[in-house]
Design brief:
about 400 residues, alpha+beta, 2 domains, eleven-stranded mixed beta sheet, two-stranded antiparallel sheet, elongated
């Protein structure tokens, strides 16, 4: 066994030292693997960042109410009477004898993207007086919160990074109405950073939606109280036609809907590019074996085994794929990891989030690179192992 290891080490060293002799083919193989890994990580980081942002927006102890069958808030309606009933449910948290609940209205407004200068839809949300307390991860970083009953808005930091014209202190016009930007808020890793917020009563009036809400949030005493609240709501005939979720459940479903297509596209492109990279690796390794046929034959004559030739070829293929994989990962991390982007969310508005090249994605990329190297070296390795010394030397 020790002899085999020594033989494999000797042949591997010989193979690796001879790579410059096949420089262009080796570079092509490395580049193919690097591009495959970079493109795969692009889509996976895109979907991962989107899923993290949407999933990170939910709480287990906040009830999220939407009309039954609505796929998005824009399609939902919750009446004021239902709002009052839901706020009176069991285990609802109270603040100054008022339930911590917020009936909310979501409308679409236009904004100009900084990157392209084109118009895009943005979510404009009217929230109730308890809307901020229902989102404990939100912090005002510039200015202040809007005053109820006024045409004042606060802007999410994510939206501000992607769209021009919403800076703190600006006066803007949206849907024919003048608004004053009085604050900027941060809610890292959530969809809330993609929104504009104003007083729900003002939004209802100015957007001609009197007494209409689309969703409602209710704060419960604990996550354990959620099941009992759902049973209570389903038993009340006045609340029929409403879907009752925890906020985390709702956003989890939104994450699956939004990120799923990106994962599918990334998977298909990754497979197609992996096939191309694999073809390049096979060509490189077959050329390597052909170029070293006399060397392999000589080694076989002096006692090196076919297994040593096989594993030596595998080591070369894995080394080239590893180099390509590392380059691809570095390209992904340097080019787009942590960068802010936006895409069309389930409500037909822009959702701002960051690319996230997480450790599990890096591990998946390394595994793919090693698979390409393994398959790319396996068949040429068999060819090297089957080299017949007499015939090869005679041909020379």
């Amino acid at each position: 066994m020790a002899s085999l290891f020594n033989q494999v080490g000797a042949i591997s060293a010989l193979n690796l030292r001879s790579i410059p002799q096949r420089g262009m083919m080796a570079i092509a193989s490395v580049v193919a693997v690097a591009l495959t890994i970079a493109v795969l990580l692009f889509f996976l980081a895109l979907s991962n960042g989107l899923a993290r942002t949407v999933n990170g927006s939910g709480s287990d102890d906040v009830v999220f109410v939407i009309r039954e069958g609505s796929n998005a808030e824009l399609n939902s309606v919750v009446s004021r009477d239902q709002l009052n009933i839901l706020a009176s449910g069991p285990n609802v948290v109270h603040n100054n004898n008022q339930p911590v609940a917020s009936g909310e209205l979501l409308v679409i407004v236009n904004g100009v993207k900084r990157s392209s200068g084109t118009n895009a839809n943005m979510p404009f949300r009217g929230i109730g007086p308890e809307g901020l307390s229902l989102r404990p991860g939100v912090h005002i970083t510039q200015g202040r919160m809007f005053r109820p009953g006024t045409n004042e808005i606060v802007v999410g930091a994510g939206l501000l990074r992607e769209f021009a014209g919403f800076e703190y202190g600006r006066t803007i016009r949206l849907r024919g109405t003048t608004w004053q930007v009085v604050g900027v808020f941060e809610a890292p890793g959530t969809v809330f950073e993609s929104e504009l917020w104003a007083d729900v009563a003002v939004a209802q009036s100015l957007f001609n939606r009197p007494n209409v809400y689309q969703t409602m949030r209710v704060k419960l005493s604990s996550a354990a109280a959620m099941a009992g609240y759902k049973r209570w709501a389903r038993a009340d005939a006045r609340l029929r036609g409403l879907d009752i979720h925890s906020e985390r459940e709702y956003y989890g479903e939104q994450a699956r809907q939004n990120a799923g297509p990106l994962v599918a596209i990334g998977g298909v492109l990754g497979i197609l590019m992996a096939i191309g990279a694999l073809a390049g690796a096979l060509n490189t390794m077959y050329a390597s074996v052909a170029a070293r046929s006399s060397e392999i034959a000589t080694l076989r004559i002096i006692g090196f085994s076919g297994w040593a030739a096989f594993f030596g070829t595998m080591v070369e293929a894995l080394a080239l794929s590893a180099i390509g994989g590392v380059i691809g990962i570095l390209l992904a991390v340097l080019a787009f990891n942590g960068r802010t982007t936006s895409t069309l969310g389930s409500g037909f508005t822009q959702l701002v989030f960051k690319f996230d090249v997480s450790p599990p994605l890096v591990v998946a990329a390394v595994i793919l690179a090693m698979i390409i190297g393994f398959v790319g070296g396996f068949f040429p390795g068999i060819r090297a192992a089957r080299t017949r010394p007499q015939l090869e030397l005679a041909a020379q």
